[in-house]
Inverse folding.
């Protein structure tokens, strides 16, 4: 099977799918909370090398239907480069139904003149976008390289290109002092821009990222306990009135409480689960089992 350039990261929902590394590392790689790819220099893998991986994977798993293009943000590649990879995937895997990748908001905004539509026609139809927060202040403090406005524009552009977006929000990202603006800004952003899937992560600072995060935050940062995180989760679920129905999950390993439902349809059952956890001490994921 394939030999990957490690470490290798992928969304939880891609766990059973084929992964092809189109790039190595993350071309932005400045987010202060993130410890992924810090030991890698960003590089574009030559097409002939990617094609060799595709051919090798096809021999081992010819019936593969879904492919995730790693590493951190394959959408940063020029469209013609991506199209060449997508065309080779389509030939190698006759049952191919979906290709997905991580995407920064800036990657989406750089695509022009129907490029997103062309990618979707070649089955790149799902983008994983880290929103993190809808607060402009917090986005600046975490060195996200995006603003609420640019994120909104990127989500609208992806929707206009008929690509599905799986967005993530990080609970606890504002600490105690900025919890309210973090959640309120996130609600306002998600209520104004369409996403197909929404997942929450819980702030989890690995050793290598902790000091960098605290320095970049620029003010005392007081982490929140599980109770405070659940209150943030509750405010988020209660406040979301998305432009279109959203499939909601908090099943990432960083979360204290795993939730699953559709919004707004399942709002009340989701709130009931959170309230039960808050009021009756529902068993939460043990801290030693949480991570990225």
């Amino acid at each position: 099977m394939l030999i990957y350039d490690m470490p290798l990261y992928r969304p939880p929902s891609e766990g059973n799918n084929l992964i092809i590394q189109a790039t190595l590392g993350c071309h932005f790689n400045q987010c202060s909370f993130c410890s992924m790819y810090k030991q890698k220099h960003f590089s574009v893998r030559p097409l002939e090398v990617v094609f060799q991986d595709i051919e090798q994977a096809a021999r081992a798993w010819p019936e593969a239907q879904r492919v995730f293009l790693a590493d951190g943000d394959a959408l940063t590649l020029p469209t013609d480069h991506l199209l060449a990879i997508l065309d080779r995937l389509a030939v190698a895997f006759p049952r191919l139904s979906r290709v997905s990748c991580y995407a920064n908001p800036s990657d989406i905004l750089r695509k022009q003149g129907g490029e997103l539509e062309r990618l979707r026609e070649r089955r790149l139809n799902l983008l994983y976008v880290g929103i993190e927060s809808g607060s402009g202040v917090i986005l600046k403090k975490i060195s996200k390289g995006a603003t609420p406005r640019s994120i909104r524009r990127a989500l609208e552009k992806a929707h206009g290109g008929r690509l599905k977006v799986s967005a993530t929000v990080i609970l606890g990202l504002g600490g105690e002092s900025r919890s309210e603006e973090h959640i309120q800004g996130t609600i306002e952003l998600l209520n104004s821009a369409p996403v197909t899937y929404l997942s929450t992560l819980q702030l989890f600072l690995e050793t290598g990222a902790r000091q960098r995060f605290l320095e970049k935050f620029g003010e005392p940062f007081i982490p929140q306990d599980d109770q405070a995180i659940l209150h943030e989760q509750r405010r988020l679920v209660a406040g979301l009135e998305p432009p279109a129905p959203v499939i909601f999950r908090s099943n990432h390993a960083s979360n204290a409480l795993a939730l699953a439902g559709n919004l707004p349809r399942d709002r009340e059952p989701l709130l009931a689960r959170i309230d039960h956890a808050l009021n009756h001490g529902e068993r939460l994921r043990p801290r030693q089992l949480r991570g990225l």
User: Anything to note?
Assistant: Strands lie at 18-21, 23-24, 43-44, 66-70, 98-102, 124-132, 164-171, 197-202, 246-249, 260-263. The mean pLDDT is 94.
